[in-house]
Specification:
4 helices
């Protein structure tokens, strides 16, 4: 998926026309995105896809992941 739909600061280290795997997009937006980016993410991916990806990050970023699961999803 192209990353142009999200805030530029999330993917600063990638080419702006990069076609990244879904897992990378979900991780980056979840960790570094603003509320508007999280809303876009929830419209582009299913709850199951997002939740499965976030489970790999939960131990390290528990507060952020809990917020996303309770408020955004």
């Amino acid at each position: 998926m192209l990353i142009t739909k999200f805030s530029k600061h999330i993917f600063w280290s990638y080419n702006k026309n990069a076609d990244l795997p879904d897992r990378i997009i979900i991780e980056q937006v979840s960790l570094y995105g603003e509320i508007k980016d999280l809303i876009i993410l929830s419209k582009l991916y299913t709850k199951k896809q997002i939740t499965e990806t976030l489970q790999t990050l939960k131990n390290k970023y528990m507060k952020r992941i809990n917020f996303i699961e309770k408020v955004i999803l």
